[in-house]
Amino acid sequence: MTREYLPANCYTCKKCLICFTLDTCKCDKSVKPIRVGNPQRGQQIYSRVFTPNEELQTANQFLFSANEKFQYNSNFNIPFSFTFCSTCNSKFQRLKGNDKLAKRKDIYTKKKKILAEKEEKILEKSTNKMNSISIDVEDTKSSDLVDEEDEDDISEFSEVEDYGIDQIKLQIAIEKKGKKTSTSKTITIKPVEYITVIEGINNAVQKALKNRNIKPADYSMSYKAVNARGLSSTLEDKLDFNEFIEDYKKIIAAGKKVSIIIVIGDDSTNEKTKSKRSKASDKSDSSASDEERNQRILSNSKKKRKSRATQENDLSKEEQTRAGIIATLCEKYKCDMHNTPCFIQENRHLQLNPARLQLWACEIHNKNTTYDVPPTFPTFNAALGTLVNKNNDTQIPTIASTTSTTPVNPIVIQMPYPYSHSPSNTFIHPTSIHPISSPTTNHELPSVTEFFLNLDQKYNCNNVYSKFKNAFLEEEITVNTIKDLTDEQMVKLGIVKIGWQKNIRQAAQRY
């Protein structure tokens, strides 16, 4: 009795791909099931199309047996579609892999036979020119050559692995070290083998950069899902590749694409340009006289010895904007009584030191405040300012004494790091009372932006530490947990130098 194949059944085990049971059910099996994005374990659906192919004998026999067992009466002379469950699909892929391996062995056997025939012809020609001793030596060499090729081929076939997928589709993103621009290209690679995939990626990099001399050793390679946040995973060896295949299956099952990130240095991309420049410089040096060479060497040494001050062109656009904001604040709040600008409110002079100016400029640049209203940080509290009497221009201390029966708690002038509270850093005019010290050692927890900005100010750096703030914010790391980070975690966050790690940990010990 002939039974028509229904697309909601697995072709080889007849499992229902709607309720995933082998028992008789009432599901409508005439409708092809839809594959979901995140299926449960054992509920994956694989749609396949049969194409007549005599080379896949074992895999085709798997389908022939199911057709005979369930009497589908399928026509294997023309292509048709069918559906697999996860178990049958895995078995089918293994059978296809065995067929491909058998085909490769057959090709190798034919090549070996042709090679043997050529060697026989060479030996026949050599018998007319060599004596019997040389013939024996030649036979020994040829036999050794065949044995070595046999061993290499056996090892080659033994390393073949079946990853369960026929091809992979990747988006190659090529970035140059030190530059934000990148080149993107989508490629498809098959079959899925470690060497084939690495060579396919390298060919794409060579075509994109128009340099056939680039090798995988000239760049670093990592991967992650397209538009995914967080760090990417490295892809350097065979073990990384096996993990990459597992992650690739999960990402594709979620309906996303996989991106291969290539970070290449300037040395490999500019190799030809550098060689041309070196040749041109050699020619110019050979044609120049000894006197001109000496003068050029002296002038170059003088230029190296000269220390050049930071120019406006050395600053980034954001830094130039902040510098302009600071200049405007200094002019707007210029104080006649103090050398530093002051924000005056109710006769209280809050001196705008470099730390306060930097914070205010950052907040104005981020459009969180204006020139007339200071930020809401504790360091801008008006109570921290010096009270000035307009009548006799005398300065009154910030904290006045009260009756002896009422205890007075000293006010700690809390400044962002490195302007920490100490008797010498209290911003009270010298004519006021003695500086106020605090016995407490607790420090108010600053934000990540303030923390790295203060480190740049302490070590007189130009955005050396502030560039790490985005990585810390992305990983939701607060200042009080920085001291617990390991060296490996620091490196993942981009802090690769030992000096940077020590300075950051030392500053974080305060919180």
UniProtKB/TrEMBL annotation:
<feature type="region of interest" description="Disordered">
    <location>
        <begin position="271"/>
        <end position="318"/>
    </location>
</feature>
<feature type="compositionally biased region" description="Basic and acidic residues">
    <location>
        <begin position="309"/>
        <end position="318"/>
    </location>
</feature>
<dbReference type="InterPro" id="IPR001660">
    <property type="entry name" value="SAM"/>
</dbReference>
<feature type="compositionally biased region" description="Basic and acidic residues">
    <location>
        <begin position="271"/>
        <end position="295"/>
    </location>
</feature>
<feature type="domain" description="SAM">
    <location>
        <begin position="443"/>
        <end position="511"/>
    </location>
</feature>
<dbReference type="Pfam" id="PF00536">
    <property type="entry name" value="SAM_1"/>
</dbReference>
<protein>
    <recommendedName>
        <fullName>SAM domain-containing protein</fullName>
    </recommendedName>
</protein>
